[in-house]
Protein backbone atom coordinates (compact mmCIF):
# COMPACT_ATOMS: atom_id res chain seq x y z
CA UNK A 1 0.00 0.00 0.00
CA UNK A 2 1.09 3.59 -0.58
CA UNK A 3 2.33 5.80 2.24
CA UNK A 4 -0.34 7.80 4.08
CA UNK A 5 -0.94 11.21 2.51
CA UNK A 6 -3.36 13.45 4.43
CA UNK A 7 -4.18 15.80 1.56
CA UNK A 8 -4.63 12.88 -0.81
CA UNK A 9 -7.11 11.32 1.64
CA UNK A 10 -9.12 14.54 1.94
CA UNK A 11 -9.25 15.05 -1.83
CA UNK A 12 -10.02 11.48 -2.88
CA UNK A 13 -12.43 10.04 -0.28
CA UNK A 14 -16.11 10.72 -0.94
CA UNK A 15 -18.99 10.51 1.53
CA UNK A 16 -20.58 7.52 -0.16
CA UNK A 17 -17.41 5.46 0.26
CA UNK A 18 -17.30 6.37 3.96
CA UNK A 19 -20.91 5.26 4.33
CA UNK A 20 -20.15 2.03 2.44
CA UNK A 21 -17.20 1.36 4.74
CA UNK A 22 -19.42 1.85 7.82
CA UNK A 23 -22.03 -0.48 6.34
CA UNK A 24 -19.37 -3.15 5.79
CA UNK A 25 -18.30 -2.85 9.43
CA UNK A 26 -21.90 -3.00 10.70
CA UNK A 27 -22.93 -5.87 8.40
CA UNK A 28 -19.56 -7.65 8.82
CA UNK A 29 -19.66 -8.54 5.15
CA UNK A 30 -18.90 -6.42 2.10
CA UNK A 31 -21.55 -8.27 0.09
CA UNK A 32 -24.32 -7.39 2.56
CA UNK A 33 -23.04 -3.81 2.68
CA UNK A 34 -23.32 -3.65 -1.10
CA UNK A 35 -26.96 -4.79 -0.94
CA UNK A 36 -27.66 -2.22 1.79
CA UNK A 37 -26.14 0.58 -0.28
CA UNK A 38 -27.69 -0.68 -3.55
CA UNK A 39 -24.48 -1.25 -5.53
CA UNK A 40 -22.78 -4.31 -7.02
CA UNK A 41 -20.64 -6.39 -4.69
CA UNK A 42 -17.63 -6.05 -7.03
CA UNK A 43 -18.01 -2.27 -7.00
CA UNK A 44 -18.21 -2.23 -3.21
CA UNK A 45 -15.07 -4.36 -2.92
CA UNK A 46 -13.21 -2.07 -5.35
CA UNK A 47 -14.26 1.08 -3.49
CA UNK A 48 -13.06 -0.26 -0.15
CA UNK A 49 -9.77 -1.48 -1.67
CA UNK A 50 -9.28 1.99 -3.17
CA UNK A 51 -10.03 3.52 0.24
CA UNK A 52 -7.32 1.35 1.83
CA UNK A 53 -4.89 2.35 -0.92
CA UNK A 54 -5.66 6.02 -0.34
CA UNK A 55 -5.27 5.66 3.43
CA UNK A 56 -2.09 3.62 2.99
CA UNK A 57 -3.13 1.11 5.64
CA UNK A 58 -5.33 -1.96 5.95
CA UNK A 59 -8.76 -0.91 7.26
CA UNK A 60 -10.59 -4.25 7.33
CA UNK A 61 -9.41 -7.62 8.60
CA UNK A 62 -10.82 -10.28 6.30
CA UNK A 63 -11.64 -13.77 7.56
CA UNK A 64 -13.84 -16.77 6.75
CA UNK A 65 -16.74 -15.27 8.73
CA UNK A 66 -16.54 -11.82 7.17
CA UNK A 67 -14.76 -8.57 7.95
CA UNK A 68 -13.96 -6.62 11.11
CA UNK A 69 -12.21 -3.27 11.38
CA UNK A 70 -8.46 -3.27 11.89
CA UNK A 71 -7.06 -0.94 14.59
CA UNK A 72 -6.72 1.77 11.93
CA UNK A 73 -10.19 0.90 10.64
CA UNK A 74 -11.67 1.38 14.11
CA UNK A 75 -10.27 4.92 14.10
CA UNK A 76 -11.84 5.55 10.70
CA UNK A 77 -15.19 4.17 11.96
CA UNK A 78 -15.23 6.73 14.77
CA UNK A 79 -14.41 9.68 12.56
CA UNK A 80 -16.58 8.55 9.65
CA UNK A 81 -19.62 8.44 11.94
CA UNK A 82 -18.86 11.93 13.19
CA UNK A 83 -18.46 13.20 9.61
CA UNK A 84 -21.71 11.63 8.38
CA UNK A 85 -23.60 12.81 11.48
CA UNK A 86 -22.31 16.34 10.88
CA UNK A 87 -23.38 16.23 7.22
CA UNK A 88 -26.88 15.10 8.24
CA UNK A 89 -27.06 17.84 10.87
CA UNK A 90 -25.91 20.37 8.26
CA UNK A 91 -28.65 19.21 5.90
CA UNK A 92 -31.27 19.48 8.63
CA UNK A 93 -30.21 22.94 9.73
CA UNK A 94 -30.06 24.31 6.18
CA UNK A 95 -33.47 22.84 5.29
CA UNK A 96 -34.94 24.34 8.46
CA UNK A 97 -34.55 27.82 6.94
CA UNK A 98 -36.97 27.01 4.14
CA UNK A 99 -38.98 24.01 5.35
CA UNK A 100 -38.99 24.24 9.13
CA UNK A 101 -37.19 21.80 11.41
CA UNK A 102 -37.40 18.28 10.02
CA UNK A 103 -36.09 14.92 11.13
CA UNK A 104 -36.80 12.23 13.67
CA UNK A 105 -36.27 12.09 17.42
CA UNK A 106 -36.54 8.86 19.40
CA UNK A 107 -37.14 9.25 23.13
CA UNK A 108 -36.95 6.41 25.65
CA UNK A 109 -38.36 6.79 29.14
CA UNK A 110 -40.33 5.08 31.88
CA UNK A 111 -44.04 5.47 32.62
CA UNK A 112 -43.32 7.06 36.00
CA UNK A 113 -41.49 9.87 34.19
CA UNK A 114 -43.60 10.13 31.03
CA UNK A 115 -46.92 10.53 32.86
CA UNK A 116 -46.12 13.40 35.25
CA UNK A 117 -43.38 15.20 33.28
CA UNK A 118 -42.52 14.21 29.74
CA UNK A 119 -45.98 13.82 28.18
CA UNK A 120 -46.79 17.51 28.55
CA UNK A 121 -43.36 18.65 27.40
CA UNK A 122 -43.33 16.31 24.41
CA UNK A 123 -46.74 17.64 23.45
CA UNK A 124 -45.38 21.19 23.49
CA UNK A 125 -42.40 20.10 21.40
CA UNK A 126 -44.64 18.40 18.81
CA UNK A 127 -46.65 21.61 18.45
CA UNK A 128 -43.50 23.73 18.12
CA UNK A 129 -41.92 21.38 15.55
CA UNK A 130 -44.78 19.74 13.63
CA UNK A 131 -42.50 18.43 10.85
CA UNK A 132 -40.34 16.40 13.25
CA UNK A 133 -41.29 12.74 13.65
CA UNK A 134 -41.38 12.11 17.39
CA UNK A 135 -41.10 8.48 18.56
CA UNK A 136 -41.58 7.59 22.24
CA UNK A 137 -40.64 4.18 23.65
CA UNK A 138 -41.75 3.23 27.17
CA UNK A 139 -38.96 1.18 28.73
CA UNK A 140 -37.55 0.28 32.13
CA UNK A 141 -34.53 2.09 33.53
CA UNK A 142 -31.73 -0.24 32.38
CA UNK A 143 -33.30 -0.63 28.94
CA UNK A 144 -33.49 3.17 28.56
CA UNK A 145 -29.75 3.58 29.12
CA UNK A 146 -28.95 0.62 26.84
CA UNK A 147 -31.12 2.03 24.04
CA UNK A 148 -29.28 5.36 24.16
CA UNK A 149 -25.85 3.68 24.32
CA UNK A 150 -26.68 1.56 21.24
CA UNK A 151 -28.03 4.52 19.30
CA UNK A 152 -31.59 3.15 19.28
CA UNK A 153 -32.79 6.29 21.09
CA UNK A 154 -31.56 9.87 20.77
CA UNK A 155 -32.60 10.89 24.28
CA UNK A 156 -33.36 8.79 27.33
CA UNK A 157 -34.92 10.05 30.55
CA UNK A 158 -34.35 7.74 33.50
CA UNK A 159 -34.29 7.61 37.27
CA UNK A 160 -30.89 7.31 38.90
CA UNK A 161 -30.18 3.83 40.29
CA UNK A 162 -26.99 2.42 41.75
CA UNK A 163 -26.95 -0.66 39.52
CA UNK A 164 -27.09 1.20 36.19
CA UNK A 165 -24.07 1.09 33.86
CA UNK A 166 -23.65 4.65 32.57
CA UNK A 167 -20.38 4.01 30.74
CA UNK A 168 -21.87 4.60 27.28
CA UNK A 169 -23.88 7.76 27.97
CA UNK A 170 -23.52 11.37 29.04
CA UNK A 171 -26.03 12.38 31.71
CA UNK A 172 -27.61 15.72 32.56
CA UNK A 173 -29.82 16.34 35.63
CA UNK A 174 -33.49 16.71 34.72
CA UNK A 175 -35.84 16.71 37.73
CA UNK A 176 -36.21 15.61 41.34
CA UNK A 177 -39.15 14.32 43.31
CA UNK A 178 -39.70 12.16 46.40
CA UNK A 179 -40.69 8.57 46.95
CA UNK A 180 -43.49 7.93 49.43
CA UNK A 181 -45.05 4.84 51.00
CA UNK A 182 -48.58 3.98 49.85
CA UNK A 183 -50.48 2.16 52.62
CA UNK A 184 -54.13 1.21 53.26
CA UNK A 185 -56.12 3.87 55.16
CA UNK A 186 -56.63 1.41 58.02
CA UNK A 187 -52.95 0.57 58.39
CA UNK A 188 -51.14 1.84 61.54
CA UNK A 189 -48.48 3.56 59.41
CA UNK A 190 -51.15 5.72 57.72
CA UNK A 191 -51.20 8.03 60.77
CA UNK A 192 -47.45 8.61 60.69
CA UNK A 193 -45.92 11.82 59.33
CA UNK A 194 -42.90 9.94 57.95
CA UNK A 195 -41.60 6.38 57.87
CA UNK A 196 -38.18 4.77 57.61
CA UNK A 197 -37.34 1.82 55.39
CA UNK A 198 -37.02 -0.46 58.40
CA UNK A 199 -40.71 0.26 59.09
CA UNK A 200 -41.58 -0.92 55.59
CA UNK A 201 -39.25 -3.91 55.59
CA UNK A 202 -41.20 -5.56 58.38
CA UNK A 203 -44.40 -5.29 56.27
CA UNK A 204 -45.41 -7.06 53.06
CA UNK A 205 -43.79 -4.66 50.59
CA UNK A 206 -44.98 -4.76 46.97
CA UNK A 207 -42.23 -3.20 44.85
CA UNK A 208 -42.53 -1.92 41.31
CA UNK A 209 -39.91 -3.83 39.33
CA UNK A 210 -37.70 -0.77 38.71
CA UNK A 211 -37.29 -0.22 42.47
CA UNK A 212 -36.33 -3.74 43.54
CA UNK A 213 -32.59 -3.02 43.33
CA UNK A 214 -33.00 0.11 45.44
CA UNK A 215 -34.91 -1.80 48.12
CA UNK A 216 -32.35 -4.60 48.21
CA UNK A 217 -29.57 -2.08 48.73
CA UNK A 218 -31.53 -0.33 51.50
CA UNK A 219 -32.21 -3.67 53.20
CA UNK A 220 -28.55 -4.65 52.96
CA UNK A 221 -27.56 -1.45 54.79
CA UNK A 222 -29.82 -2.62 57.62
CA UNK A 223 -28.20 -6.04 57.64
CA UNK A 224 -31.31 -7.65 56.17
CA UNK A 225 -32.34 -9.27 52.90
CA UNK A 226 -35.23 -8.11 50.73
CA UNK A 227 -37.09 -10.96 49.02
CA UNK A 228 -40.42 -9.72 47.65
CA UNK A 229 -43.40 -12.05 47.22
CA UNK A 230 -44.96 -9.83 44.53
CA UNK A 231 -43.39 -8.93 41.18
CA UNK A 232 -45.21 -6.12 39.37
CA UNK A 233 -44.20 -3.76 36.59
CA UNK A 234 -46.67 -0.87 36.82
CA UNK A 235 -47.48 1.57 39.60
CA UNK A 236 -51.19 1.08 38.91
CA UNK A 237 -51.04 -2.65 39.65
CA UNK A 238 -49.02 -2.06 42.83
CA UNK A 239 -51.57 0.52 44.01
CA UNK A 240 -54.47 -1.83 43.28
CA UNK A 241 -52.85 -4.52 45.43
CA UNK A 242 -52.46 -2.02 48.27
CA UNK A 243 -56.13 -1.02 47.94
CA UNK A 244 -57.01 -4.71 48.23
CA UNK A 245 -55.16 -4.86 51.54
CA UNK A 246 -52.38 -7.12 50.28
CA UNK A 247 -49.48 -4.95 51.40
CA UNK A 248 -47.67 -1.63 50.96
CA UNK A 249 -45.86 -0.07 48.02
CA UNK A 250 -43.55 2.86 47.30
CA UNK A 251 -44.15 5.31 44.46
CA UNK A 252 -42.92 8.74 43.31
CA UNK A 253 -45.14 11.50 44.75
CA UNK A 254 -45.58 12.96 41.26
CA UNK A 255 -47.82 9.98 40.40
CA UNK A 256 -50.29 10.63 43.20
CA UNK A 257 -53.71 12.02 42.30
CA UNK A 258 -56.37 13.55 44.53
CA UNK A 259 -58.56 10.50 43.93
CA UNK A 260 -55.83 8.28 45.34
CA UNK A 261 -56.01 9.94 48.75
CA UNK A 262 -59.63 8.80 49.16
CA UNK A 263 -58.51 5.16 48.97
CA UNK A 264 -55.01 4.94 50.48
CA UNK A 265 -52.64 7.00 52.61
CA UNK A 266 -49.33 8.32 51.28
CA UNK A 267 -46.56 8.76 53.85
CA UNK A 268 -43.21 10.46 53.15
CA UNK A 269 -40.11 8.26 53.44
CA UNK A 270 -37.42 9.81 55.62
CA UNK A 271 -34.39 8.39 53.78
CA UNK A 272 -31.77 10.10 51.63
CA UNK A 273 -32.36 7.65 48.76
CA UNK A 274 -36.08 8.54 48.76
CA UNK A 275 -35.28 11.72 46.84
CA UNK A 276 -35.57 10.44 43.27
CA UNK A 277 -33.30 12.13 40.74
CA UNK A 278 -34.07 11.80 37.06
CA UNK A 279 -31.50 12.44 34.35
CA UNK A 280 -31.40 12.87 30.59
CA UNK A 281 -29.05 10.45 28.81
CA UNK A 282 -27.44 11.01 25.42
CA UNK A 283 -24.92 8.76 23.66
CA UNK A 284 -21.41 9.50 24.90
CA UNK A 285 -19.33 11.50 22.45
CA UNK A 286 -22.05 11.90 19.81
CA UNK A 287 -23.46 15.23 18.70
CA UNK A 288 -27.25 15.46 18.85
CA UNK A 289 -29.14 16.09 15.62
CA UNK A 290 -30.78 19.55 15.42
CA UNK A 291 -34.28 18.16 16.26
CA UNK A 292 -32.91 16.22 19.24
CA UNK A 293 -30.87 19.23 20.37
CA UNK A 294 -34.02 21.37 20.22
CA UNK A 295 -35.87 18.87 22.42
CA UNK A 296 -32.95 18.70 24.85
CA UNK A 297 -32.93 22.50 25.12
CA UNK A 298 -36.68 22.58 25.74
CA UNK A 299 -36.46 19.97 28.50
CA UNK A 300 -33.60 21.76 30.24
CA UNK A 301 -35.14 25.23 29.90
CA UNK A 302 -38.17 24.19 31.97
CA UNK A 303 -38.08 24.88 35.74
CA UNK A 304 -36.63 21.94 37.61
CA UNK A 305 -39.02 20.05 39.86
CA UNK A 306 -37.98 20.16 43.51
CA UNK A 307 -39.13 17.58 46.06
CA UNK A 308 -41.86 18.78 48.39
CA UNK A 309 -41.13 19.19 52.08
CA UNK A 310 -41.07 15.99 54.17
CA UNK A 311 -44.50 14.96 55.35
CA UNK A 312 -46.47 16.48 52.47
CA UNK A 313 -48.52 14.36 50.10
Automatic annotation (TrEMBL):
MF-aspect GO terms: DNA binding; DNA-binding transcription factor activity
Assigned keywords, A-Z: DNA-binding, Transcription, Transcription regulation
GO cellular component, one term: cytosol
Residues annotated as domain HTH lysR-type: 18-70
Pfam families xref list: HTH_1, LysR_substrate
PANTHER family attached to this UniProt entry: HTH-TYPE TRANSCRIPTIONAL REGULATOR YBHD, LYSR FAMILY TRANSCRIPTIONAL REGULATOR
Similarity comment: Belongs to the LysR transcriptional regulatory family.
Protein name (Swiss-Prot/TrEMBL): LysR family transcriptional regulator
Amino acid sequence: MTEFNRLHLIRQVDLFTLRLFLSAVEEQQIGRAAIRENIAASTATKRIQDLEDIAGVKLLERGPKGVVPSPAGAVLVRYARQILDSIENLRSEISAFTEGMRGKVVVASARSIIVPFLARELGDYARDFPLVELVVNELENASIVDAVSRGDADIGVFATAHELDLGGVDVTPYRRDRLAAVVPLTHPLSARGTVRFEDLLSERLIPVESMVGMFRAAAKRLGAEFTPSFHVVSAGVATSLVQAGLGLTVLPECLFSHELFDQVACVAIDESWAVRTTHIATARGRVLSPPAAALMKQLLDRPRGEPPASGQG
